[in-house]
Design brief:
globular; mainly alpha; 7 helices; 155 residues; single chain; 61% helix
Amino acid sequence: PAAGWKCPEVLRSQASPVAGINYGWTATLSPEAAMRVMTAAMAADGTIALEERSYLETFAKRRGVPEETTAALLAAAQAGRIEMPTPSSTDEACAFLRGVIAMSLADGRVDPVEQEAIAACAKSLSLTPRGVDDLIKEERRRLYARAKEAIKERG
């Protein structure tokens, strides 16, 4: 089945309901579920980078999530007490995968432990390692293009 796998539309979406940061992958999730995905992904490598924390806090503010919720999730992540929520549908699994990739790239790199978290999410979608690499490359290109455009706008 993996050889014939096609990227679901939800993974292709570049829609951004919030200017400047692509949260399109959260469309099928509640803000709290999206934040659990992000905190689980950011804690996967045992380190919460400043860029990852900033991404999460910006998301929380823009989605109206109370600061106490954000603080509690960050504390749980730092203590190693947070796990990836279980997706209830294929659409949710796709959104989780997109979110794990986005958070893993928040600090500019995907380390081996983050790669394992991405692979675990991808497994439920029968996505090949090459397919995962392609999604990571796609997200990197999108981030690069966004950064390039932001620099041009500041001009």
